[in-house]
Every structure is written in structure tokens, then in C-alpha cells.
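Project outcomes to date are best conveyed with an example. Our students and postdoctoral researchers have been running inverse folding experiments weekly, and each run begins with a structure described purely in C-alpha cells. The record below, which covers 138 residues, was selected by the lab manager from last quarter's runs and is presented without edits.
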């Protein structure tokens, strides 16, 4: 019986491991390191910071995001800022398909359709936007 509890605990850790990964958010000019985003909805982001305190902020206050599981997102944002929208869009397409968490798909997806729009690709812009609608993560 004791071994069953240990195995159950280990399985829970393994299943929960992807959700325990931390990301970084830039708020008020400062990076908050190792936060865990819980959700994005209704123009707000909910995350745990520090010792597990839950924080709710308007999305408009989020100045930057570093996705631990998707370092290509930050590279794509840099390319976009440098005016290399087509290259950024290609990277973002890949990150969008790999992002598992709905909130991560929302962040990546909203940047993705803007990158395609800046690149002048109307078809891919519409596709990227409809991908957000289909996943209901906008």
C-alpha cells in the first residue's frame, strides 16, 4: 500500500511537471522572474509570483513575456522589432503549434497574426487570426 502512494505521487509530479515551468513577465519596467501564468481572460492575466501569491493584472500592463518552454518566441519578437516580420512569422508559426498551454497560445497567437500582417501576407494573417478563434484563446 505504501508503494502505491509513492507511485501515485510520482505520477502526479510527472503529469504536473509541464505546468510547473516558470516564465518571466515584464511589468512596470521590471522583469518578474519565475512566475507561473494561470490564465489569460477578459483582458487580464492571472499569475503566481514569489511565494505563491496570486496576482491579477490588466494585459495592457504586461510589457514583455519570456516563455521558458519556447525561447524562439523571444527571438521572434526581436525580429519583429527589427522589421523582419516574415522571419518572425515563420518562427511564431512553429511556436504556436508547439505551445500547449492555452494562455501561451494566446500570447504567441496574437503576436503571430500581427507578424503575418506586417509581412504583408493577407492569407496567413487571416489564417493566424482564425486559428486563435478556433482555439478560443484570444
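After processing, the design step wrote out the following sequence:
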Amino acid at each position: 500500500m505504501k508503494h502505491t502512494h509513492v507511485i501515485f505521487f510520482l505520477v502526479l509530479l510527472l503529469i504536473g511537471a509541464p505546468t510547473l515551468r516558470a516564465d518571466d513577465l515584464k511589468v512596470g519596467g521590471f522583469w518578474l522572474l519565475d512566475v507561473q501564468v494561470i490564465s489569460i481572460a477578459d483582458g487580464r492575466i492571472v499569475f503566481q509570483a514569489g511565494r505563491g501569491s496570486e496576482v491579477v493584472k490588466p494585459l495592457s500592463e504586461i510589457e514583455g513575456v519570456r516563455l521558458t518552454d519556447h525561447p524562439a518566441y523571444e527571438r521572434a519578437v526581436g525580429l519583429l522589432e527589427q522589421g523582419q516580420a516574415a522571419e518572425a512569422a515563420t518562427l511564431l508559426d512553429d511556436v504556436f503549434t508547439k505551445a500547449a498551454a492555452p494562455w501561451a497560445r494566446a500570447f504567441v497567437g496574437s503576436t503571430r497574426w500581427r507578424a503575418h500582417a506586417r509581412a504583408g501576407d493577407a492569407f496567413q494573417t487571416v489564417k493566424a487570426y482564425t486559428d486563435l478563434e478556433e482555439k478560443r484563446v484570444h
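The CA atoms of residues 1 and 59 lie 47 Å apart. The first strand starts at residue 23 and ends at 27. The training component of this project remains on track.
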